TrEMBL record:
It comes from Variovorax terrae. InterPro entries: NTF2-like_dom_sf (IPR032710), SnoaL-like (IPR037401). Residues 9-135 form the SnoaL-like domain. The lineage of its organism: Bacteria, Pseudomonadati, Pseudomonadota, Betaproteobacteria, Burkholderiales. This is Nuclear transport factor 2 family protein. SUPFAM superfamilies: NTF2-like. Pfam families: SnoaL_4.
């Protein structure tokens, strides 16, 4: 692959932005906008399912809990250009979750420690635009979840088997 350094930097910046943007749409429950950032034949895999195609990804998103609030912090991003029209990427993700906090009208308690995972991406340029052709979530840390009593009582610790 013979790309100019400025083309490599530009592509990596676009792909990094794409990784952030797809997560932001997910957080805001903007699933139609999110799915538009995937190729028609995209593959999506996480703890909730393993699906192919925009329509299947959209359905998986619409089946999500409607009041689940999550915010992601992406870090340690690495992007490798394979050629002019394909790339792969990896980032760490720390997710802060409250199962009854969406939409945000006030600050809510975080439920339990943050979840930690890796996102593995494959990208393909389609008609001059970078899109996600594969996204796979690999969970790294899970287990303890803190949950408050409905009456405002003390926190209870639940241990979830991965």
């Amino acid at each position: 692959m013979s790309l100019e350094p400025i083309d490599i930097l530009s592509a990596k910046a676009e792909l990094s932005e794409l990784m952030s943007r797809v997560n932001r749409h997910y957080e805001l429950h903007e699933y139609t906008e999110m799915v538009a950032l995937y190729t028609e034949d995209a593959h999506y895999a996480n703890w909730r399912g393993d699906v192919c195609g925009r329509a299947a990804i959209l359905q998986l998103m619409r089946d999500r809990e409607p009041d689940r609030l999550v915010r992601h912090v992406l870090s340690n991003t690495v992007i490798d250009l394979l050629n002019r029209d394909s790339a792969q990427g990896l980032c760490y993700v720390t997710a802060y979750i409250n199962h009854h906090g969406h939409p945000v009208t006030r600050a809510v308690a975080q439920v339990g420690p943050p979840a930690f995972a890796e996102y593995h991406f494959a990208f393909r340029r389609v008609d001059g635009r970078w899109l996600i052709s594969r996204k796979r979530t690999v969970e790294i840390f899970s287990g303890q979840v803190l949950q408050h009593a409905e009456d405002g009582g003390p926190l209870h610790t639940l241990f979830i088997q991965p």
